[in-house]
């Protein structure tokens, strides 16, 4: 089986989002564009690296990854201001939608491309077997 398992795809997305959040905290002291770019990059990387059987996880993980990373980073750095954190998550909805769209598009492209490629692979394998 080629690709990474679903749990590793989640870790890829979380790691990229955390890197963006750490950069944001170091530069401006608040979560912002770095975390959001990290989320989209992480979702794209996960959708491209995951096994075919686990593609659904990579396609729909954006909202959960953003929520968890935002809550954990905010609680660690703002000393427990949960209300402000939840408002920030709601304001990040466009990024969650973009991350989900990127994951869906890349996942669907992979599903369609692999389905289209299979008959050709079988035909080539059949020719080699008869030769």
Spell out the key features of this protein.
6 helices, 0% strand, mainly alpha, elongated
Q: Can you tell me the overall shape?
A: elongated
Separation of the first and last Cα atoms: 27 Å
Low-confidence spans? none
Average pLDDT confidence is 81
As a percent range, the share of helical residues equals over 70%
> Can you summarize the main beta sheet?
none
Order of helices and strands: HHHHHH
Helix count equals: 6
Structural class: mainly alpha
Radius of gyration (Å) = 19 Å
| Quantity of strands, as a count | 0
Task: Return the domain count.
Answer: 1
Strand content: under 5%
Give a topology summary:
Layout: H1 6-27, H2 33-49, H3 55-60, H4 62-77, H5 82-91, H6 93-130
Helix pairs in contact: 1-2, 1-4, 2-6, 4-5
Note down, in words, how this protein is organized.
With 131 residues, this protein is mostly helical. The protein has 6 helices and no strands. The protein has one domain. It has helices at 6-27, 33-49, 55-60, 62-77, 82-91, 93-130. Helix 1 (6-27) runs antiparallel to helix 2, helix 1 packs across helix 4 and helix 2 runs parallel beside helix 6 (93-130). It is elongated and about 50 Å long. The model has no long low-confidence stretch (mean pLDDT 81).
